[in-house]
Amino acid sequence: MGILDLMLRWPVLRQIARGDVKALGETAMTERSRTLEPRTARADRVVKSVCPYCAVGCGQDIYVKDERIIDIEGDPDSPISRGRLCPKGSATFQLVTGTHRVQHVLYRRPGGTEWERLPLEQAMDMVAERVKRTRDETWEDTDVNGFSVQRTLGLAHLGGATLDNEENYLLKKLFTALGIVQVENQARI
């Protein structure tokens, strides 16, 4: 390979030699850039989802390969966001795959002075057990007038503004099935 051939491998010199001053054509390509493809091209499947950050409900396409998320992008079929995501929505991939993601909870036992780390699964089991115990201990078949109420007043739920309509629907169904009557949502939008 001569010196001229070597020099023409540099994109800037190729641009000058071929008169491609804006570098919009073949002169801007390298062997690496010729073989590039989107991360999404090798996905096994695409799962439709909704961004978890606010109540707008922007659509997301979740690209999955070997049961692992490889990319998250805006869903162009979404009538709400039409393929667009805000900076927080665009960062959802890091939210679900980042090494900084918390895999445990901090728990301080009643009367304790120190925090201890518990696995997330154990903490969820503890919450479920406490919900069941509270429901069982505060269950009312009838009210003071003898009317059938089938409820508990020992539990309540306050939802957040990041919940979309579908999530709120499912939460309402769950808590109604548990006999919980105090179900509210702190909605901003």
Structure description:
It is a single chain. The radius of gyration is 27 Å and the shape is elongated. 8% of the residues are buried. It has 189 residues and is of the alpha+beta class. The strands form three sheets. It has a three-stranded antiparallel sheet. A three-stranded mixed sheet has the order 6-7-8. The protein contains seven helices and eight strands. It is 32% helix and 26% strand. The chain has three domains: 33 residues, no CATH class; 59 residues, N-terminal domain of TfIIb (Single Sheet), CATH 2.20.25; 82 residues, no CATH class.
List the helices and strands and how they pair.
Elements (H helix, E strand, L loop, with lengths): L2 H5 L3 H8 L12 H5 L9 E6 L8 E7 L2 E7 L12 H4 L1 H6 L6 E4 L8 E4 H19 E4 L5 E12 L5 H13 L2 E6 L4
When the domains are counted, the total is 3
The mean pLDDT is 88
Low-pLDDT sequence parts: none
Q: Please outline the major beta sheet.
A: 3 strands, antiparallel
Rounded to the nearest angstrom, the radius of gyration is 27 Å
Determine the N-to-C terminus distance. Answer: 65 Å
Instruction: Please count the beta strands (DSSP E, at least 2 residues each).
Output: 8
* Tally of DSSP helical segments: 7
**H and E order:** HHHEEEHHEEHEEHE
Q: Percent of residues in helical segments? A: 25-40%
Bin the strand percentage. 25-35%
The backbone outline, from C-alpha atoms, is elongated
Question: Structural class, from secondary structure content?
Answer: alpha+beta
The largest beta-sheet arranges its strands as 1-2-3
Main location: other
Protein name: Formate dehydrogenase major subunit
Pfam family, one: Molybdop_Fe4S4
Subcellular location: Cell envelope
